[in-house]
Amino acid sequence: MGFPAIPQRQLTADELKRYEEDGVIMVKGALDANWVEMVAQGLDEALSAQSVTGKFMSRKVEGYKMDIFLWKRIDVLRDLVYYGPFAHWAQALLGSREVRFFYDQMFVKQPGTDAPTPWHQDLSFWPIRGEQVTSMWIPLNPVNAENSGLLYVKGSHKWPHRFKALSPDYVAAIIDESMDDIPDINADPGKYELLHWDMEPGDILMFHPLTLHGSFGNKSRTTPRRALALRWTGDDVTYQPHAKRMPIHYRHDSVPGGPLRGAAFPIILPHHDPAERAARVLPESGQPHKLIGSAVNNALASVKLELSGHKHKIAPRQTWDDVSKVAPAANSKKD
Prior knowledge:
seven-stranded antiparallel β-sheet; 8 helices
């Protein structure tokens, strides 16, 4: 198979309109069992051998496992990126001629893991800028608000705010003090319209990187919440590295202010680049000097934040105490 698979489930005109207006859609039954099994196999491999970055991201909360750039070392996820139907969906959502893969991320919350994901905008974390960016969140278990299904603030991708990047472990190195504070959404639930869905394996959430979202911890005692996120970019996206944004530890050819280029961000549509594909024939690890630099930067930022005495002012904690306040899921809408 030389090209991305054509989706069996095409996005409808109504779904594309709601993505534009709401900033998120849930596509029911998007993936068949074969693609779901590939995701499951990839996450199993990732959990059995986390990267150095993944171990750092997962260090603070037992039962909450994260990792990124899995496709660089797990072949089944490499094949999912290159040959799965996702790039075609991204092209439809973005209205872009070119579609590049940005990166993937694993999120696993075991049963009873009290680890909320703070309200955040994805784009705040990333060393890219542009309007043509989309994320796809693929669950491997039935999910709802109780076991950490994602919640979204409807239409928040159109707000003028650019919020601080609050990660689940409140990593100091990426909290930009010049950005806006995130409102405590759950402390005033009547002020915002929240969207969320009960989901099954095969369903996908597709959302804009500025749509404010988060989740409760996994309050279920029996059901884990395992999910893979895939991020895609289009024609207008540029590389914008910054000390307060996620570093890229893999080789690429992008220059600040220019388009994404190189093997870290492979082009999938309209056609593959043979050199980029060849670079990923064998598993690749992050460049050691970049990993060490990131670790040092985070340690220094953490010390600076503690010494300033402004830790809670810069990264205020959010209210995530009562899942019963969340309105019923939006499954009545036909996605």
